[in-house]
């Protein structure tokens, strides 16, 4: 009788350890998924910022080219 109880306790402890292990894995993978989402969001934000910067640089380049043409005109006159 005691041996049966001991065997059941061992099985219950083993089941509990397996459950804890599965819960740890779930928590780890959930953390990675959350981290992945955050990284993707930041990547999108940085790409958008890069596009805005490219447009701004193109506009500055156009304005600089126009200013150089004006200066050339004044020096030629």
Write the layout of secondary structure elements.
Elements (H helix, E strand, L loop, with lengths): L1 H75 L1
Structure description:
The chain is an all-alpha fold and 77 residues long. It has a domain at 40-76. It contains one helix and no strands. The longest helix has 75 residues, at 2-76. The chain is rod-shaped and about 115 Å long. The model has no long low-confidence stretch (mean pLDDT 89).
Concise description?
The mean pLDDT is 89.
Order of helices and strands: H
The largest pleated sheet is described as: none
Proportion of residues in extended strands: under 5%
Helix content: over 70%
The low-pLDDT segments are: none
Gyration radius, in Å: 33 Å
How would you state the average pLDDT, rounded? 89
Alpha carbon gap, first and last residue:
114 Å
Q: Rough shape?
A: rod-shaped
Summing up helix and strand content along with how strands pair, one would put the structural category as mainly alpha
Number of strands: 0
**Count of alpha and pi helical runs:** 1
Name the features.
rod-shaped, 77 residues
């Amino acid at each position: 009788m005691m041996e049966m109880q001991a065997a059941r306790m061992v099985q219950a402890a083993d089941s509990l350890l397996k459950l804890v292990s599965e819960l740890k894995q779930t928590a780890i993978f959930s953390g990675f998924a959350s981290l992945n989402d955050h990284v993707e969001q930041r990547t999108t934000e940085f790409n958008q910022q890069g596009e805005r910067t490219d447009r701004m640089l193109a506009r500055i380049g156009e304005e600089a080219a126009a200013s150089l043409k004006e200066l050339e005109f004044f020096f030629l006159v």
